[in-house]
Design brief:
- The protein is built from 11 helices and 8 strands.
- It has about 300 residues and is α/β, with parallel strands linked by helices.
- Strands 1, 2, 3, 4, 5, 6, 7 and 8 form an 8-stranded mixed sheet that branches.
- A hairpin with a 2-residue loop joins β3 and β4.
- α5 crosses α6.
- The protein is globular and about 55 Å long.
- The two termini are about 15 Å apart.
- Bound molecules: zinc ion (2 copies).
- One zinc ion binds next to loops.
Amino acid sequence: MRIDLHTHSRASDGTDTPAELVRAAARAGLDVLAITDHDTADGWAEAAAAAEEVGITLVPGMEISTGHRGRSVHLLAYLPDPTSPPLAIELARVLSGRESRVPDMLARLRGLGIEIDADDVRAAAHGAAATGRPHVADALVTLGVVADRTEAFDRYLGAGRVAFVNRYAAPLEATIRAVTEAGGVSVIAHPWGRGGLGRPDEATLAHLHDIGLAGLEVDHQDHDAATRERLRAMAREIGRVATGSSDYHGTGKVDHDLGCNTTDPGEYERLMELAAESAARSARVTPLATYGRATGTA
Ligand SMILES: [Zn+2]
Ligand SMILES: [Zn+2]
């Protein structure tokens, strides 16, 4: 059984529609696929219908942008009821924070004397559902302000640069509790990955286990072999699940092909058992839980 528990569709920053993502997963020989778009359940219904068609198990999930002690931490949530109020409130805050970020960045750039407005960014986004920093960078290239995206980030948009705007991140601990309360389970995505994300230390991860964290994403392209071994040992030590995933984004991210990392079937089974316990305790019903729980807990 081949299991990939972290993938993105066009519902966030992937390039496949949810249905295309599921069909690509079936072609890649996957039996279980989790759809985990950033901070949204928008792709679930379309993905579930496609999963039924092609006969693979779909685990509805999301990757929530959280913060912990000033660091950004991505939290994978599986099988939560997204309408559960504590979770729904955090997701709405994260999404509105993202939308307001671009206007704030543009205002700062104009404050520096750069003539740029929302239309420039929209043109650079080529119809993407949500605009973000990369699109602002592309607009700066088009306007001739910088030579390329890298220069745009180095001079203006990167963390700590003049036009950088921090966006809202849900508090990590409260979000883990909100996911549990919503009948789901949470796994820290690429805990020690690159890309400016924080590196929660071992004591922190052990503490997060106490408040309900179900697992750690161990096998991820951002982790080298030594990091994987250390995280795997840590997950074992604190009795948590170790997952492995591609973090596929379609053509939006190279070297993240579907199934390039997979989750051990035994680990997946434990994760689904924890999800079933969480759902039973919360008395909330995940809209598409049957897909996620069809294999693994039987
Ligand atoms: Zn991530
Ligand atoms: Zn991701």
